[in-house]
Amino acid sequence: MTGLIQFYRKPGLCPSQIEFLKSKIETVVQQSSLESVVTELCFYIEAESKDLSEQEESVLKWVLSVPFEESCLTKDTGLNKDASSLLIEVGPRLNFSTALSTNSVAICQSFGFTDIKRIEYSIRYLLTFKAGCLPSAEEEEEVLNCLHDPMTQCRYTEPLQTFDLHTNPDPVFEVDVLGKGRKALEKANETLGLAFDPWDLDYYTQLFLEKVQRNPTSVECFDLAQSNSEHSRHWFFKGRLMVDGKEWPESLFSMIMNTQSSSNDNNIIKFNDNSSAIRGYEVKSLLPDSVVGPGKFSVSENETRHVIFTAETHNFPTGVAPFPGATTGTGGRIRDVQSTGRGAHVIAGTAGYSVGNLHIPGYPLEWEDKEEKYPPNFARPLDVLIEASNGASDYGNKFGEPVITGFARSCGLVTAGGERREYVKPIMFSGGIGMLDGGHVTKDVPEKSMEIVKIGGPVYRIGLGGGAASSVQVQGDNQAARDFSAVQRGDAEMEQKMNRVIRACAELGEKNPIRSIHDQGAGGNGNVLKEIVEPAGGVIHADRFQLGDPTISVMELWGAEYQESNAALVRHSDLPLVTAIGRRERCPVSHVGTVTGTGRIQLENFSRDVKGGDNGRKPVDLELEHVLGSMPRKVFEMKKVKQEFSPLVYPEKLSVRDALTKVLRLPSVASKRYLTNKVMGKH
């Protein structure tokens, strides 16, 4: 019988963290009513049996305790509330295992302690107030918001008894386009949060009525929304621009690409989905003699290593949840470096942040307007700057990639014409450099009978609908619940395990088993698996994925972005080698499908049939040409707007010192090391 064992450890937070929390709480409760904040950690351990032996309990205590402070870990809580106190317990949402759990369980299993299945911890806060000054229900809710991240955490109203959620996966259903036409897609657009615009609705209605001649499934609709979103396809950058009724001769993307005609002729890879590369140097490398077991290192002969640079932004997720949004922006960009060519090496990263007016408490700036409004489900600019920089550095530190430089901007103003210009939707920029073996520059074209493998973490219900949510034109219009579902959670330790698998394959040189590799991003499996088999097509077996959450539905398995996962093509004869490397690095490697050569992408072998469809109907069965082929370019109507300007007026008595004081208050001025060169993120 599985049960949860509890251990408590005091203190939960360090004194500086507690002081910071007190200052935040005091802004939402009666002035000076808060007397003290005491914290402890509560560890919940899921074991096959609640009755642990004395040795097993000793091992657990060693894993969970702080060195030289073993006595701080007890089986009984040290916090008890009374009439003048409030006890709040906050822990991770239960639909996914945290990185702490993954690594703690791995440590226990390395001891041969296989009964442990999951380890999570919560933070318990005992808030003591002056007599008669307990917060109201509304204030208590605001206090809770000060103590947790609603995207990754929730309140435990009582101690956990189980990690089970007791939920049933949603069934797949058909969208009746044949019977109801565009209105059926409009309804699916609203209920599934697809972010289809009128052009999309017209195009897909016509596609299924005239070309496919059948109803799409809910999974296919969700797939199309992510794979062909603005986020993934860059419709605006590649679209036809009509300026004052006249078509512009080039797309924005073409104009950017044309800059290469006057640049140095040293491109090895340019404008690629993953990274760009410039010509590198002949170097010697220190390589292992064996990638699957112990062995010595040897110095290689001279080999060419090209220089990689890649960059991406993670704007929407960072705006909704700054810390996890920035961690996964960093993680996604690292996966881009890894997936260059047939597998590359990660070296170092950069980070940048552009936010609106900061409105720092007690630090008013004359150019900031306190009356300006922000979307309620977006974090404030100050929180974005602090928490996003914490997140990027936290992920880089845990993975082992230093953040070495970056930038910061804060801007919000109203023009002379009354137009507000501000980074309401923030920019979180992540860039990185890496190395690529000269023999691994070109990915192989997918061939029939090549095997499709997923490398990295198991499937979780996280990052669901990120491509569509990022593509909403007016940020803040989306439902908050959908925004939170669309943001991912990062596990830097799992990404490092995956990195070691890719690195081991790349270090085999000419014997590298990876024929092609793509990083998983927005759209999840539905996007990355289509890309890696295009144009040959493939069949994917849904029951071969490793699930981190047994309640996953078909649509969630196909569309969730869940982090730390890449897709690769390998030859059948190389499957044992890749699996052995994954086993050595404790990184999941799942053989999920095969390249078929039919030009179709098919998802099959799931235990649940399509609701309302024929028996055995596949949740996904589409021609790749229809979803990744030459789709019509979108047309964007634009008009030139005459700008109104007003002369710059200086104050009558503006000294050089006053001017310098104002300028130096801008985050864009002077060193950014306080944002980029951090040793630690948040707790």
Automatic annotation (TrEMBL):
Domain Phosphoribosylformylglycinamidine synthase linker: residue ranges: 185-234
SUPFAM superfamilies in the cross-refs: FGAM synthase PurL, linker domain, PurM C-terminal domain-like, PurM N-terminal domain-like, PurS-like
InterPro entries xrefs: FGAR-AT_N (IPR040707), PurL_linker (IPR041609), PurM-like_C_dom (IPR010918), PurM-like_C_sf (IPR036676), PurM-like_N_sf (IPR036921), PurS-like_sf (IPR036604)
Record-given protein name: Phosphoribosylformylglycinamidine synthase
Annotated ranges, domain PurM-like C-terminal: 452-603
ATP-binding among keywords: yes
This protein's record includes keyword Signal: no
PANTHER family the record matches: PHOSPHORIBOSYLFORMYLGLYCINAMIDINE SYNTHASE
Organism: Aplysia californica (California sea hare)
Keywords, sorted A to Z: ATP-binding, Ligase, Magnesium, Metal-binding, Nucleotide-binding, Purine biosynthesis
Domain Phosphoribosylformylglycinamidine synthase N-terminal, first and last residues per copy: 42-158
